[in-house]
Amino acid sequence: MSSKIGRYSIYIKPIFGLIDVLIINLAISLFEININQSILFSIYISVLWIILSIKNKFYDIKRFSNVIQVLAALIRQFLIFALILYAFIGFFKQPGISRFEMAKYFITIVGFVTFSKFLLLYLLSKYREVFGGNIRRVVVIGDNKKTNQLIKIFKEKSEFGYKFQKKFCVRENEFDWDSCFDYIVENDIDEVYCSIAELTNSQLRDVVTFTENNLKILKFIPDNKDIFTKKLVFNYYEYIPVLSFREIPLDDSINKFVKRTFDIALSLFVLVGILSWLTPLIALLIQLESRGPIFFKQRRNGLDYREFYCYKYRSMKPSKSANQATKGDARVTKIGKIIRRTSIDELPQFLNVLKGDMSVVGPRPHMVKHNEEFAQRVDKFMVRHFVKPGITGLAQVSGFRGEIESNKDIINRVKYDIFYVENWSLLLDIKIVIITIINAIKGEEKAY
Questions:
Q1: Helices 407-422/368-377 angle, 10° precision
Q2: Who contacts 8 (Cβ-Cβ below 8 Å, separation ≥6)?
Q3: Which of 96, 130, 199, 365 has a Cα-to-Cα distance from 71 of 20 to 30 A?
Q4: How much is the pLDDT for 447?
Q5: Residue 139 in 3-state DSSP?
């Protein structure tokens, strides 16, 4: 999982993007393009470059990508960017712009961006090879021609950044799956590569369940066996085909950067624009009804199952009991009923968002003891922890918030959470936030 693999990995793609934006802006001064509105032109090309890059997945270059794949990405990007450049003339009515100088400018940035991209990729590969940074620890399950070829690539292509740890031969007599799984956990393995050819369907299910419940990335080396009806991702490590069982959008550093920017912007708006004046008012009302702290904090599990303190306005009378509130709970105060009904009690969690423990949107974090219970009862429950927990989430706006009254509640919540993990987009986050606000204004049946 990317969040466990290196503190600075998430900054690689944003840095690549920033360098390219600087190049296309600085190169303007080298030519007499005769632009009347230079600031507008700079904003225009910068914004559209970023949008085009996201749409084309221009910075979605894998560590095992080859030169042809990088060149193809460059060609796609610049073919469309050429149209964007010349569209500026007609769209903003700039007849005085020199088409010839614009062409020279375009050719120059193609050269500089191409050179910088290959240079940065080369330096990054050398960083992995020489300094051992940005490394993923891997094991391979299976012993055949394809697995041995893959292991050879891991060992010889150190610039890919994979550190091969161990191969497990499942065809051996008395092969011990528990020992295999223990090794993966104890040695903090990041990715598991599994040969489908050597495993039964039952064993495949066991491997899938283990990796998902222990937050490990599982990838398959395919053959013609029937595997799971999932959206598989197909890549080549040189000439070895590898299938990824689950690709998480928020493992992409650009997506992670976009989501984090959205989180910071919205949390600052709420903290400064709302909580700065609402907190003293809520504090006064809480103190008038019952003595005790204004805020309530509780240990929850977040990204990679790490524990953190989740903040809320106190809505119940001080009590030694840390159990979740139930319908008609006598501990809930009068003001507590109001702020819980409107979800105002959750607003201090924007502090958690600003700290980085939570996101505005994501799977709701459960109490530590509940997580331990649900992890045993609900298959794939741990998949929720591949991303940061949220103040609100897809499950909550789909009718599965509040108290868990039956197995159906938690199973459906996990189903929606996994869908969110696998299908994240900024537009989905915005939609969930809007629905949450509408529900808070109306009041929700299970908000007690």
A1: 90
A2: 134
A3: 130
A4: 53
A5: strand
Q: In DSSP terms, which residues pair with 296 in a beta bridge?
A: 312
Rounded to whole angstroms, how far apart are CA atoms 41 and 28?
10
Task: Give Cβ neighbours of residue 134 (< 8 Å, ≥ 6 apart).
Answer: 5, 6, 8, 9, 12, 63, 124, 127, 128, 161
Q: How far apart are CA 440 and CA 344, in angstroms?
A: 8
Task: Give the chain's radius of gyration (CA, Å).
Answer: 26
CA distance 293 to 332: 14
**32 by DSSP, 3-state: which?**
coil
Residues lower than pLDDT 70 in the chain:
1-9, 223-232, 245, 319-329, 402-403, 405, 444-448
Taken in order 108, 110, 115, 120, the sign of the CA dihedral is positive
Return the number of other C-beta atoms located less than 10 Å from residue 337's C-beta: 16
Pseudo-torsion of CA 322, 325, 326, 328, nearest 10°?
A: 120
Per the listing, tokens 């020489």 go with: 130
Q: How many CB atoms lie within 10 A of CB 230?
A: 13
Among candidates 357, 55, 387, 16, which has minimal Cα distance to 215? 387
With a threshold of 0.85, does the pTM exceed it? no
CA distance 89 to 34: 11
Give the model's pLDDT for residue 89. Answer: 87
pLDDT of residue 445: 62
Q: How many angstroms separate the CA atoms of 337 and 325, rounded?
A: 11
Calculate helix-pair angle for 276-289, 334-341, nearest 10 degrees: 150
Residues 263, 360 contacting (CB under 8 angstroms): yes
Nearest to 198 by CA among 158, 143, 241: 143
Instruction: Quick: pLDDT tens for 281-325.
Output: 999 998 888 888 889 889 999 998 899 999 999 888 776 655 565
Helix (H, G, I), strand (E, B) or coil at 307: strand
Q: What is the pLDDT of residue 230?
A: 54
What is the Cα–Cα distance from 346 to 235, expressed in whole angstroms? 42
- Neighbour count for residue 375 (Cβ, 10 Å): 18
Q: Write the CA distances from 100 to 77, 86, 103, 109, integer angstroms.
A: 21, 11, 5, 15
| Spatial separation of the C-alpha atoms in residues 373 and 357, rounded to whole Å | 22
Q: Which helix (H) or strand (E) holds 370?
A: helix 368-377
